[in-house]
Amino acid sequence: MLRFLTVAVLAIHTLLVAGYTAPKRWVPPLWRAWSVALVRPLFHQGWDLFAPDPPRCACTVEAKQGQGAWSAAEAEGRAARRMARHLIAYLGGGEALPDTLVVPPRWAPALRSLFTERPPLKGPLALRAVQRCMDDPARPWERRSHHVQLEFATPVPP
Amino acid sequence: MNPATIRLFQRAMHLWLLGVVLCAVPEADRLWQHPVSPVTQGAWIPVLVAALPGSDRWAGLPAASLLLAMAAYGLWREPPRWVALTMAVLYTVLLHRSWLAATGGHWLMANVLLWNVALRERPSGAFEARLAHLGFTAIRLQLCLAYAMSGLNKLAGTSWRDGTALLRVASDEAYGPSELLHHPALAAALGHGMLVLLVALPVALWVPALRRTALITALLFHLVSGIWFHIPDMALAFCAVLLCWTSPAEALVVTRATLRFKALVLRWLGDGWAALAVFCSRNS
Q1: Mutation test of the interface with chain B: which of A9, A27, A53, choosing the one with the most B Cβ atoms within 10 A?
Q2: Domain boundaries, chain B
Q3: pTM for this one?
């Protein structure tokens, strides 16, 4: 009985995690719904690094205060660099962005707080994304640089 | 399931925890104290912990310090179940506070730490043994699922199949190496090789005749990709969890080698300390 229970738990768990992490279009909607409902609370995970395709654009975030010079999130530390990259990926930075991007309210506080540790405040904080996009997949080494102004949809408290 | 294998795996997992949390401490403010990452939705452990009194005060650095102490204890002895559970909870809370900085390796470890609560080096009684077996098999399955799903997700795109994916990755200066750009055939071969490896590993690890080859290949793959893509924490998380696939004999060899290395380091430290004491006494 105990043996059967172990096998059943493992089989169900494996099927649910597979339904949660497999490509969305390959999983039947009902299986997917059960997987999300049961896996998300305790066993959340995602296996889509560079998948289905690596991003076409490399993207970083830069900030400046007042008339100061632009400085990249990279300068803020390893975790800051990774957070900036993930944040901009959530904003669609893997593909070419328009010249100005309005940051949705969900992401605005995170983006702003990445750069709040830099005293003294010498004017308003301006943010921009720097994209290097590949235009021709056959020539990946040729990348075009593009600056994207980041604006907030609603004012974010400092 | 063998005590030597389980203990080696647990030590590797605790060592990874110790390293990752220690490396994150200098950026604790952004990661845990005043998290940059937006609050996650739908996860039970962070919600339950947030409901505890004063959780905002202790869920940052104090939780990380406790986790460090527990991980250090785990290197020495197998922690009791309540400690294993506390470690899983603390790690999950810290991970959810800093999820924007997390990699697949961090999430893998969160799942493994949860199953580790069921795992025991020397279970007593039939129920304990069954529970330990459940935890051990779940950890092995979790690792296989990670490889299989990573492979399937890549197969769902086009660039991995036509061999241009690694060219795209290498052309991003954050990853590199840019030398690969001048060898598209090599990049295509490596990309296809990676796909085959990701899809084949979950099967090969279960086949006794292929297990050792698969294990060594996977360890090398992670070490190389960890250095190449600048994600050592992710690579080392997979390496640590892969150790649950070692045979008892292999686990003993690795454990003995680690103990010899530890003794050597302690001797060097002892010699250094003695030399320093002599130097100080002569100059005082």
Answers
A1: A53
A2: 3-246, 250-284
A3: 0.92
